[in-house]
Structure formats: C-alpha cells, structure tokens
Design brief:
Layout lengths: L1 H8 L13 H10 L11 H13 L7 H10 L6
Helix pairs in contact: 3-4
C-alpha cells in the first residue's frame, strides 16, 4: 500500500502549465478533478525573479507564466 501511495506522490514530468497566478486554487481544483498529474507548479526561482522584476519595472507587474517564459528564453531550466 505504501509503495502505491508513494508512486502517486512522486509523479513524473508535469505537462500542463498554469496560466494564472492562482496556484493554490489550481492545486485544489486538480485535487478535486483528480488531475494532479497535469498540474504545473512553478519553481521557487520563478517567484523570486518575478518579485525582482516587479520591483525593477514598477508599476508593471509580471505573471508567473510571463516570468517563467522569460527565464526559459534566457536559458534557465528547472532541473
């Protein structure tokens, strides 16, 4: 039982990107619809970079998706 449970906690590559900043709501929705395997939660680096971008380019604000896309364009990987 433990191994089966652990298998579902450590899923492989996630495929669906979040297009909103409502990460917690998306997480709960994925639990409700049993679709955690398609949920993408941004890496913590994305949050830090977004905060820095928001401070540097105030009053412009960046979404998590924009920030992650810009980071990937600059060569960042979440590995």
């Amino acid at each position: 039982m433990y191994l089966l449970y652990r298998k579902y906690l450590t899923m492989a590559k996630k495929s669906v990107k979040l297009y909103t900043d409502n990460v917690l709501e998306s997480f709960y929705e994925a639990i409700h619809t049993n679709s955690l395997d398609r949920l993408h939660i941004p890496h913590s680096d994305v949050y830090y970079v977004r905060t820095a971008l928001d401070a540097k380019f105030y009053p412009r604000t960046f979404t998590l998706k924009e920030t992650e896309d810009y980071m990937r364009l600059e060569g960042w990987t979440d590995v």
